[in-house]
Amino acid sequence: MNRNYREVFNECLRVMEAQGNPIYGKDIAQQFGWHPSKVSRFLSGKGEINTGEFFELLNWMPPEFQALFWHRFIPEQVKEMAASPPPRELALTMNNQELSEFFAAIAERHRVFPESNILAS
């Protein structure tokens, strides 16, 4: 199920409220100097805030809210990638066939995207 950031944000607000730490739209409006209707429209999906405003809002939220938001928003595939070992460690576990395929993929990437010189770093 692919959810957008607003759905996840609202879900996190409900969790915080259920835990006895509610964050109200009026508090958000006061903190950022926004009209309460702007917050209401954003939360209901009838209006938008820009990306910068959203990240400022998210940064203002308590750390437990932020952690919950990112945990629920980041797709499972990204979580799995973040948990995988670094390429060097991964390469050390590969057999010769896997290494050959790995290097072929790197060579192909460099051929297709020559500006991404992976050997420069």
Find the structural class using helix and strand composition: mainly alpha
Outline: elongated
Mean pLDDT: 85
Write down the secondary-structure element order: HHHHHHHH
Measure the end-to-end span: 37 Å
Radius of gyration: 21 Å
Instruction: Just give the CATH class of the largest domain.
Output: Mainly Alpha
The description of the largest β-sheet is: none
The name CATH uses for the topology of the largest domain is 434 Repressor (Amino-terminal Domain)
| Percent of residues in beta strands | under 5%
Total domain modules:
2
Helical content class: 55-70%
- For the record, the CATH architecture of the largest domain stands as Orthogonal Bundle
The beta-strand count equals 0
User: Uncertain spans, ≥5 residues at pLDDT below 50?
Assistant: none
The number of helical runs is 8
Topology:
Elements: H1 5-18, H2 25-32, H3 36-44, H4 51-60, H5 63-73, H6 76-83, H7 87-92, H8 96-112
Helix pairs in contact: 1-5, 2-3
